[in-house]
Structures are given as C-alpha cells and as structure tokens.
C-alpha cells in the first residue's frame, strides 16, 4: 500500500512538472522591429527559442547601429543574447539606431619647392582631382609633379585620376 501511495505521488508530481514545463514552452510573444517610426519586421518567438534577427535595414547616408530597447537614448542594446537574459512578459518593440556615415576625405599636398604656393586640396574619396594651375618660379621652368622628393616617379597619372589616399607631390624645376 505504501508503494502504491508513493507511486501515485510520484506520478502526480511528474504530471505537474510536465504541465509546468509544457506551459512555459508555449509562452510566445512578438518582437516588433521598428525603423524610423514604421514596423520593419515582426518576429513571434517562444521564450526558450533562439530568435533570428531580421536583416539589417539600410538608409542612405547612414550606417545601421544595431537594435535597441530604448528609442533615442540608445542605452539598452538588443541582441540575440540580451533577449535570453531579459525578463520579458509580453510583446516588445525594438528600434533601429542610425549612425551618420563619415565621408572619407584625402589631402593632396603640393610641395612647390620655393615656387608659387598651392594650397593643399581636401577631396572626397573616389573623386577626380582638378589639376591646379602650374606653379611658377623665377629662373626655372616647371617640369611636372612627382611622388618623391628626388622627382623620379611621375605623379601626372594620379593627379588626373580618382583619389583613394592622401599624398604629397613635389614640383620638378629645370633651370631656364
């Protein structure tokens, strides 16, 4: 009789545990991904599942800075790991953060070697350089621009092409 009671109690405890675990697995909620005030995506997840974040949104002139639980303060980052650690009791909304893209610029410096000064030019990456007027130097003829101070590597081709780095060019002079 004692064994029957013990078995009955164990069966009741087992059924109760199974019911609790089953109920926990069935808790679903929505994660609403918002971009600039509009719903970008909604993901329905089970508390025990690993969520799959939607593809990163795109916006001209900005880089996607991640998903956040707080809009405009950006203190609470939202990631796959953070959702498992959070105590969420219902559907939540997360917000896209945008970070302005930094335009890459390059500086081209002209070393005229005592010729008329030419101001350095700051130019956006990939932009073609407009060649400045040739410098002048009394008693000399301007022979061209070079990458090196010894004037052995001509820079004429790069000056006319798209710029992808900062550099200094050197004037080469020949006596008249």
Model regions low in confidence, pLDDT < 50 over at least 5 residues: none
Indicate the CATH class of the largest domain. Mainly Beta
Derived structural class: alpha+beta
Largest sheet: 5 strands, mixed
Continuous helix count:
3
Going across the major beta sheet, what is the strand order?
Answer: 2-1-5-3-4
Q: Which bin fits the share of residues in helices?
A: 10-25%
**CATH level-3 fold name of the largest domain:** Immunoglobulin-like
**What Rg is obtained from the alpha carbons, in whole angstroms?**
34 Å
The proportion of strand residues reads 35-45%
Could you describe the 3D structure shown?
With 176 residues, this protein is α+β, with helices and mostly antiparallel strands. The protein contains three helices and nine strands; from the N terminus they run αββββαββββαβ. β3 and β4 form a beta hairpin. The protein is rod-shaped and about 120 Å long. The termini are far apart.
Question: What are the SSEs and their pairings?
Answer:
Layout: H1 2-25, E1 28-35, E2 38-46, E3 62-68, E4 77-78, H2 80-85, E5 92-100, E6 105-111, E7 121-124, E8 140-146, H3 156-159, E9 167-175
Parallel strand pairs: 1-5, 6-9
Antiparallel strand pairs: 1-2, 3-4, 3-5, 6-7, 8-9
């Amino acid at each position: 009789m004692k064994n029957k009671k013990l078995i009955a109690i164990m069966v009741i405890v087992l059924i109760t545990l199974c019911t609790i675990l089953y109920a926990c697995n069935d808790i679903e909620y929505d994660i609403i991904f918002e971009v600039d005030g509009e719903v970008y995506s909604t993901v329905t997840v089970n508390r025990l599942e690993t969520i799959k974040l939607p593809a990163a949104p795109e916006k001209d002139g900005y880089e996607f800075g991640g998903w956040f639980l707080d809009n405009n303060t950006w203190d609470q980052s939202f990631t796959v790991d953070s959702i498992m650690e959070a105590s969420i009791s219902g559907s939540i909304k997360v917000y896209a953060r945008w970070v302005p893209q930094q335009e890459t610029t390059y500086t081209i410096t002209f070393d005229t070697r005592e010729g008329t000064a030419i101001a350095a030019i700051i130019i956006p990456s990939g932009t073609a350089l407009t060649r400045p007027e040739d410098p002048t130097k009394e008693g000399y003829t301007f022979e061209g621009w070079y990458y090196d101070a010894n004037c052995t590597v001509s820079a004429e081709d790069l000056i006319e092409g798209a710029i992808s780095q900062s550099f200094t060019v050197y004037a080469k002079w020949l006596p008249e």
